[in-house]
Structures are given as C-alpha cells and as structure tokens.
Amino acid sequence: MKQYRLQVMVCAGTGCVSNHSFELKEALDREIKKHNLQNETEVVYTGCNGFCGAGPIVVVQPDGIFYQLLKVTDIPHLVEEHLLKGRPVKKNLYTPPAEKTPIPKMADIPFFSDQTLIALRNRGMIDPEKIDDYIARGGYKALAKVLTSMKPDEVMSEIKASGLRGRGGGGFPTGVKWETCKKAHGDTKYVICNADEGDPGAFMDRSIIEGDPHAVIEGMIIGAYAIENVHQGYIYVRMEYPLAIKRFQIAIQQAREYGLLGKNIFAKGFDFDLDVRRGAGAFVCGESTALMASIEGRPGEPRAKYIHTVEKGLWDCPTCLNNVETWVNVPQIILKGAKWFSSVGTGDVSIDPWGGSKGTKVFSLAGKVNNTGLVEVPMGISLGDIVYKIGGGIREGKKFKAVQTGGPSGGFIPESMLDIPVDYEELTKIGSMMGSGGMVVCDEENCMVDMAKYFLKFTQEESCGKCIPCREGTKRMLDILERITIGEGTEEDLLLLEELSNMIVESSLCALGGSAPNPVLTTLKYFREEYEAHVKNKKCPAKICRQLLTYTIDQKICLEIGHGCGVCKKNCPDAAIIGERKTVHYIDPVKCGKCGACYDVCNFNAIIIE
After folding, report:
1. Other C-beta atoms within 10 Å of 71: how many?
2. What pLDDT shows up at residue 96?
3. How far apart (Å, rounded) are the C-alpha atoms in residues 95 and 87?
4. The architecture CATH gives domain 131-351
5. Which one is the CATH code of 6-108: 3.80.10.10, 3.40.30.10, 3.30.930.10, 3.30.70.120?
6. CATH of domain 448-536
7. 3-state DSSP call for residue 439?
8. Are strands 41-46 and 6-11 parallel, antiparallel or unpaired?
9. CB neighbours of 571 closer than 8 A, spacing ≥ 6?
10. Quick one: pLDDT at residue 116?
C-alpha cells in the first residue's frame, strides 16, 4: 500500500486547454469523488508541460506516469485502473510498452530526458494560480536572500558575472544593461517585462507566464532592487494571451497580499509595484522603443536609438527592458550563484561580457518534426540533437531540409550545418539568429522560395511604415518573390533581391526591418538551386508553388480502381475536369486553375502533379 498522496497534474497551458483539459479535470474530480479517493488523491492544474504535440496531458506524481492525448471518456477507466488498482493504463502512455517491460516514466521519455531546465524548472510541477505552490519549490527564496543579505551592487555583480544575456533576441548582456540603467541620470526609473511575443509558431514566453508567473515577478523585483530608484514596473503582454494575462494578474495580487509588492516586508524603504499593460498585437511592439510608446498610449512606432532606452525610455526616464525568459533566470542565478550558471553554455565571459553564450535557451519546436513543443537546452547543443534527439526526427520518415531559427526574421539553416552549436555567435555567423526562440523544421516537401515569401509577407505586413527602407523595400522584395513563385521571375530578380536585402539591412530604423531580409538571404545562399529552378525551368521542385505545376489524371487508376467516381469533377471550381461517371476523366489544361482541389479530394491517388 502506497504511503504517499497521489497528485494528478492536469496541463492547463493554452495548447491543452484548447484540447479540453478543463473538462478532463472536471471528469477527474467527479470520478475521484465517486470512488471516495479525495484523501488519497489531489487533482492539480499546472502550466504547460512542453510536450504540446501530445496534449492534452495528465501526469500522475510522484510516480511520473505520463498520459497523452486523453479524452473525457478515458477518465473513468484511468481512475479505476490506475488510482484504485495501481495499474497504469497502457493505452494512453506515451510509449505503450510490451507486456513484460516496465511502465515508462516521464523522465524516461527522450523529449524530457535530454533537456536541462532552469527557466522551465517548475514546468508541470505547480499550480500557477497558487503562490504557496511556488514558495514550496523555493520561490521567493532568492528575493529574501537579496533583500536581507545583499547590497544592490552585489546583486548587480552576480548577474554580470553569470554571463546572462537577453533572451529576447538581441543577446545584450543583462548585467551591463542593468548597470547602465543604474548609472543613468534620473530620480525615477522603470523596469519592464517584454511579453509581446509575436513570432509565428513561438509560444515560449506565453508558456512560462501561464505556468510560472511568480518567477517573472521575483526576477523583476530583484532587478528593481539592484538598479535602485525603481518603484514601478510593467509587464507588457499581447491581448491574444488572455490566459497569461489572467495568471499574471492573479500572481501580482497574491504577491501584494504577501507583502512582496508595494512596501516590501523584507526591506524597509523598498517600495516597488507591478502592473500589466496589454498590447494590441502589433509585431513591431516587440521592439523596445515601440513597446514603450505603446505603454504611454502612443502609436507603437520605433525611434532611432542614438539615445538608448536605459538612458531615456518610458516617459523619458531610464528604463530597463528584459523579456520573460531573461527575468525568470535571475532568481536561480542569485540562489545558486553566477559560477553555477556560467558553467553551462559556451565561451568565456570573465573578461568580455559578450564573450559567450551562458545558461540555457528555451525554444518552441514546430514544423515537420515528430515531437513538437517547448524545449529548454544548454547553449552550445547542436541543431541536430534538438531536431533528432529531442524532436524525434522528421515526420513520416521524410528527409530533413532546413530549420529556421529566430522567428520570421531568422534564417534557414541547411542539413549540412546540423552540427553547428546553437549559440548567439555561431547562428549569427551563418546568417541566422537566436531570436526569442522560435524554431521551425522543414522537410523535403517544403519549398524554400515559398517559405521565404511566407515570412517576408509577415514582416512586411507588420512593418509600422515609419521608415522607407522597411516600408517600401520589403514590399518590393515581396513583389519579386510573388513573381518567381508564379513562373514570371528572371535571373536578374535574384541579384535584385540580394541588393535590396543588403540595403534594407543597412538602412532600416529598427531591428524589424534590419532583420526582415534574413529568410531571403539565407535561402538564396543555401538553396539557390531552388530559386534557379523556379526562374530558369519554371518548376517548383517541392511541388508547392501551384502556378508552376501541371495536374493530370492517371487514366488506369481512375477507371480500374476509382471506377470513374467523379468526385474530382464535382469539386473542381473551374469546371476543368471532363468525363462522365464510371468513365475515364481528364483535366483540361486551359481551364485548370491549379487550385489542387482534385488532388485533395481524390481517394485513389489518381491525380498526378508534375
């Protein structure tokens, strides 16, 4: 008979919530009450577990039994078998074991076992809406240490020595930024958390906030104490993150009730509070000056940075802006020491704060990979290890083609560079960037010209339009890519794309324009043969650009296997398919709009794309 109380941890991050995890908890509560298990079992909401592709997720602790893809109808059987009889239900385990093999634990799953957790240390372990859960796992212990036994300069020195660099994309040394803000003239100073995560496919900051909001708050309080003369901080979150906003607001109120915000109970004279500010979803507001303009109630447009925000930022006061992941690293550095943190990662920061990439980095792993989700890995790990060990390789056994790092402004990295270490310096050398942590995997069925067009379209639409290079240059580049993908491009267009890209990089006002050409530049560099196929041969090797494709029907399959079913003809919007039911069908190339509807609906693989 077990002597400990079971905790059934239900993932309540946005991904699992969208897959009905709230209903799972309700069903678990009903079944546990039905079997009078309330004294032996507790059902707990947690933040994101990270393994988003397997959601909704339930983990039974302390056994570490990991259930995936659960439905409400699975709950009665799970409760009866596992919670009553102690027999984990094999059907929903991540890796269904053979009859005589041990039940796999969460720690045995490669997706989890190959990660190193610092920022995500409380992942799936606490209820994010209960401050006591955070405190029980060492929460606010670093703050108590700082306010009772460390001077502001000592805190500053520890952060500098750790080598922590900004996780929002720029990689600026955090301690240097704090110190510059501290030395700036001004009686009023501010700290801000940038949670305006707008990259397509990125969900790092959202998941941290939803799962561990008090870690962000603790880091910001420590930062305010170290910088000094900071009495107010802001957390800037995009409106598309309602669950994150809710949990931040709950956490702030709890911190106030415990005397951690406002007039702090640990240190006399230290008065610091936090508020949430909501952004309207403009991608450009992830840029520091545009973000601060938005907080002030002005249009979110960047300004030239000949005067830095640490000197004149929010309301022209010295302001220190760091992103979510940067702030959550701070408490652990204070608790375990700079030496501990800097022992992870690459390079040497003892002489030059820009001399290395220390600690871990959180990535959202998405695209054509088996294990999609949120991962935290040590700086310096190879791209190949992320894609194949943690990500489980490419779906359906297809061939790896490229991985994009750094979000829509990042570059595409080919298979020949999978051994490259993932850190700030190495990614920049090959034309990509760390960015905030987006990572999109492409396989052989991805057209690199189309991918470059997709991401450039995003950044072009999100341009604030303030500066001509970004506003007009990206539009001109997009026009060229559009022509190439419909077979109207020329070889001169490739040279023009490179020329425009370099001009935009050198002359744009902010980093949005300055990095927007990266997807185009890297695909031109590493996948130029695909551009040439589109331009010279008017073909798309990946069979994605539909205007360059030819659709025909295999007559033998159509008649002998499909029996002339006519489904393709019925669904063709251009009336381009000829043939009566139970006879061979043909596609009129003149009428065919190349929409692909026939290919999508054919159940017999009779549609041939060339």
Report:
1. 13
2. 58
3. 16
4. 3-Layer(aba) Sandwich (3.40)
5. 3.40.30.10
6. 1.20.1440.230
7. strand
8. parallel
9. 597, 598, 600, 601
10. 95
Query: What amino acid occupies position 534?
Result: H
Query: What are the CA-CA distances from residue 291 to residues 175, 299, 425 (Å)?
Result: 21, 9, 26
- B/e letters for 292-312, b = 16+ CB within 10 Å, e = fewer, are bbbbeeeebbbbeeeebbbbb
CA–CA separation, 91 vs 20, rounded Å?
Answer: 19
Question: Which distant-in-sequence residues (6+ apart) come within 8 Å of 576 by Cβ?
Answer: 587, 588, 590, 591, 592, 593
pLDDT of residue 327: 98
Burial of 177 (0-12, 13-18, 19+ CB in 10 A): buried
- Angstrom distance (rounded) from CA 40 to CA 3: 9
- Enumerate the domain spans of the chain: 6-108, 131-351, 359-443, 448-536, 550-609
Q: What fold characterizes domain 550-609?
A: Alpha-Beta Plaits (3.30.70)
In this predicted structure, what is the pLDDT of residue 201? Answer: 79
Cα angle 106, 109, 114 (rounded to 5 degrees) comes to 110
Check: pTM over 0.90? Answer yes or no.
yes
Identity of residue 268: K
Number of Cβ within 10 Å of residue 591's Cβ equals 12
Are the CB atoms for 48 and 210 separated by under 8 Å?
yes
Low-confidence ranges of the chain (pLDDT < 70): 1-4, 96-101
- Are the C-beta atoms of residues 329 and 340 closer than 8 Å to each other? no
The label of the residue with tokens 């507790």 reads: 42
- Check if the beta carbon of residue 444 is closer than 8 Å to that of residue 186: no
b/e sequence 357-367, b meaning 16+ C-beta within 10 Å? bbbbbbbbbbb
Q: Nearest Cα to 161, choosing from 337, 322, 332?
A: 337
| CA pair distance 458, 388, nearest whole angstrom | 28
How distant is the alpha carbon of residue 578 from its chain centre?
47
Task: Say what the pLDDT of residue 106 is.
Answer: 85
Strand partners, 45: 10
Closest CA to 54 of 371, 286, 278: 371
pLDDT for position 1:
41
Identify the CATH assignment for 359-443 out of 3.40.50.2300, 3.40.50.2000, 3.10.20.600, 3.10.20.30: 3.10.20.600
Q: Kindly report, residue by residue over 62-98, the tens digit of the pLDDT.
A: 889 999 999 999 999 999 999 999 888 888 887 755 5
